[in-house]
Write a structure and sequence with these properties.
Helices cover about 70% and strands about 10% of the residues. By secondary structure, it is mainly alpha-helical. The chain is elongated, with a radius of gyration of 17 Å. The mean pLDDT is about 90.
């Protein structure tokens, strides 16, 4: 799976259903590229398209259970990798990481806000 595909699935998991145009903007690709990507992920059973509840002209891309499961599995794999690597650090290095956690959390929040773009 491409990084853009994985990032798109993670975005849908974090933010819920989105329009293809919104996903393209958030992921930094063209709308035609996102349309193709969504079609491939749809054929793989990771996403589905649904109508918008209040505007029938709008189609939203939604995670399927298989897509949500894929995102959870990838995240868990990342957690396990970090656990293993952190276990190889010295006590001083672990303390330095713990001290940096507030700044890292803030960076993640800023990045998330930047990727999500304007609220609808």
């Amino acid at each position: 799976m491409s990084l853009t595909s994985a990032a798109t699935l993670a975005t849908l998991d974090r933010t819920g259903p989105r329009r293809i145009t919104d996903l393209a903007a958030v992921e930094g690709v063209t709308q035609p590229a996102m349309t193709t990507l969504v079609r491939v992920m749809e054929e793989s059973g990771l996403v589905e398209r649904r109508g918008h509840a209040s505007d029938k002209r709008v189609t939203l891309v939604c995670l399927t259970e298989a897509g949500a499961s894929y995102v959870r599995t990838r995240r868990q794999a990342g957690v396990h990798a970090f656990e293993r690597l952190i276990g190889e650090l010295t006590g001083d290095e672990v303390e330095a990481l713990v001290a940096a956690l507030p700044a890292l959390k803030h960076l993640a929040e800023l990045e998330s806000q930047d990727r999500e773009g304007p609220k609808q």
